[in-house]
Amino acid sequence: MMKVKRWMPLRAMALLIGWMSLAGAQEAAVEEVSLRVLPLGNRAPFTQVIRDGARHEVDPPEGSLPPREVAVGIVVPDDAKTKPEEKLMRLRLGEVSGAIRMPRPEQPVVALRDQEENKLWLKQGLAAAKSTLLVVWRSGKTWEENRSLALDDSPEAVPAGSARVVNVAEVEVKMIWGKQRYRLLPGKSVVLRYPDGSKGVSLEILYTDKNGELRPCLSTTAEAGPAKRRQWFVYRADRADARTPIQVLPLAENR
Question: Which of 56, 110, 179, 236 could make an SS bond with 169 (beta carbons 3.0 to 4.6 A apart)?
Fold first, then answer.
């Protein structure tokens, strides 16, 4: 017996193709954002004790370091039917963490939970860009008391031919970039352009001491080049025996 081929009606086929296209477009429309974290501060003094005839390093005081590992989650209402999966991130003082990616939330706020203590460490809104660098610093005696600043971490934030200075200290600082002078208020950042054809620019950052005198906390030459993205983070030292009360962390990363 000859088999009869059944052809799908053209209208049904068109509806199916349209549905598949819509589903694909919705899937492609899910935008992702990335997050990195930079904890700023000072390590406790390195100390050793002699025990059983051998030297042993003394653990730093409790609370003097940020959590070693945090679980990052998107903040959702308490009555939400589903909650996004948390992602683990390792932290190290003075270093930028690896990036984690997540779907862009409707309310762009993330919570970082101390994985070891199983409690909320901080909550912060994301930058409007697709990539966020979250700068965190200690505001009290321990890292449980902290403050944070969300920065645009996309390539466009610090384009080629420029550098960025970020001030998270509670005081205004002065800057000398080549022949240009700037004032940088607390919680603000500035993008500085290299002169055309320049191989480097002198950079000096100064703070005002208790006597009203300007003191340098950084004096360097900022090398120019398309391969590196250079940033400097100004913060208040959280150790009483720090050499200067205002300090600067340089950061040079591949573009």
Answer: 236
